[in-house]
Amino acid sequence: MDATTKIARILSAYLVVTGxxxxxxxxxxxxxxxxxxxxxxxxxxxxxxxxxxxITVLVHHFLWKKPLQIAVSLLGSLFLLKGAFLIALxxxxxxxxxxxxxxxxxxxxxxxxxxxxLGYFAYFRNDSLRRTPPTQKKQQ
Length: 140
What we know:
The chain is mostly helical. 71% of the residues lie in helices and 0% in strands. It has helices at 3-24, 26-34, 40-60, 67-88, 90-95, 104-123. Helix 3 packs antiparallel against helix 4 (67-88). The longest helix has 22 residues, at 3-24. 22% of the residues are buried.
């Protein structure tokens, strides 16, 4: 199994579980999104985790040719950017908490759609996963 498929499977599982979390615990995530009473240390730790995930994906996978490769590299880039902004510009990130577009139910749908689409291509539509037809014996 190639790196793209492995990373896509991991990211798809994370996105699906996160989408389920947003769907089942919308009130909790609404408070989390609002960053009300956020501890600066937790914001920094969140940035560190996002940064490490993003940079790890990109160090091992910076491929932009096939659709699944693009999706994995793009997600790695987004994790890296979110982490960098949470670490370097936390006040800017905290200001986005009052954005009325941030609805937990909409975020749940987004996470689930991206997670299931990525998982579908990583598990079922990846060229490296398709079985090759049995080879015919050479006539001698």
